[in-house]
Design brief:
Helix content: 40-55%
Strand order of the largest sheet: 1-2-3-4
Largest sheet: 4 strands, antiparallel
Number of helices: 4
Number of strands: 7
Radius of gyration: 26 Å
């Protein structure tokens, strides 16, 4: 018996696919496909949260650049460009100083991509009926399970 995938809820072997304690013999699985499911309140809130995080992370550098550019264009002569250089320098130094603090929102942003903003569904044709095996927003985990079920079905002797 070959184990293709295993976690606390899903186990895919060369003989059996188990999802939350329910077993499906690989010999009885005729077709494997996936579908994008309908979004949930949680996935919509993740997408909104991701947008807010991106805005918060990028607003300070953008504000410094806009201020510097507007000061450069409003300067009547080259002597007034010093103020623009000071504003740009303060923005760069501020970004460098605040860089360690950006680690937390960046980790939140990474986690939002891991958790996903779409719902993936894994379907099989089991004993002549279409059966939903798994529904998850974790795209990485879904891909691993989907590929494991595909391999189990493809490599099973018919």
């Amino acid at each position: 018996m070959t184990v293709y995938y295993r976690d606390q809820h899903v186990q895919v072997t060369s003989d059996m696919v188990r999802v939350d304690g329910v077993g499906y013999p690989v010999a009885a699985l005729a077709l494997v496909w996936h579908r994008r499911g309908t979004g949930t309140t949680r996935t919509r809130s993740r997408r909104l949260g991701r947008g807010v995080l991106i805005l918060l992370i990028s607003i300070l550098p953008l504000a410094a650049i806009v201020c510097a550019i507007s000061l450069i264009y409003s300067a009547s002569d080259r002597a007034a460009w010093g103020l623009a250089a000071v504003v740009l320098g303060v923005g760069v130094i501020g970004a460098i100083v605040l860089l360690p603090l950006a680690e937390l929102p960046l980790s939140w942003l990474d986690r939002s991509y891991d958790e996903g903003t779409v719902v993936n569904e894994l379907w099989v044709r089991y004993a002549g009926h279409d059966q939903l095996l798994l529904r998850t927003t974790n795209t990485l985990r879904f891909g691993q399970i989907y590929r494991a079920v595909q391999r189990a079905v493809e490599q099973h002797p018919s």
